Amino acid sequence: MNRTVTMAVLVVVFGIESEAAETRLPPQAPPGFGLATATSAGSIDIMHYETSKRVRETITETVEETTADGKRVLKDGKPILKKVQKEVMKLVPEEGHTIWGAEDFRVFRDGVRLDAEMLAELLKQPTPVVVYRSSRLLDPFYLQFFKAGTLVVYVRPGSGQCVPLGPLKFPPPTPGSNAPSPAPRPPKEPPPALRPAPPPTAGKAT
Fold it and tell me: How many alpha carbons lie under 13 Å from residue 32 in its C-beta half-sphere?
């Protein structure tokens, strides 16, 4: 998708009408995200996810069997399938957290910088924040995508103590978990009670 079409989609879907959305993408990289907590020492601890670690993995694929010249091998008019293994590189999401000292970060809300007392109150519990590793303010293009009141944390590039916690462990899929659950059957209603026929009246034909 070219840049003109991309900008048109942004305008239509998100209602962005600024000059930045209509004519260009920002020269700055997009921000990251995390869960921030204020520490008693005035620092900020942000949990985050990284996907920069590349690992080599062997996977199994089912392919059609072919001849040396690339022709399909058929049996009874159907292609013969076989399983092959190959190595691929994949990005593994890692979980970690980074602690920044008070001199290495600034936090803004709706364009207003928050002081240490306000941060201690707002970040008592892990709170979603936007994280931008730059000494420059975030381009207004990105700010349009966040709702009012979103906390934007600016951290000094190269600062902070990062502690990786290792690859994320996802639970294995349960067989049949992707299949939609059947709709519950409505309870069976008892058949309507039959009323006994009235006795014949004397002197009248039945």
Answer: 17
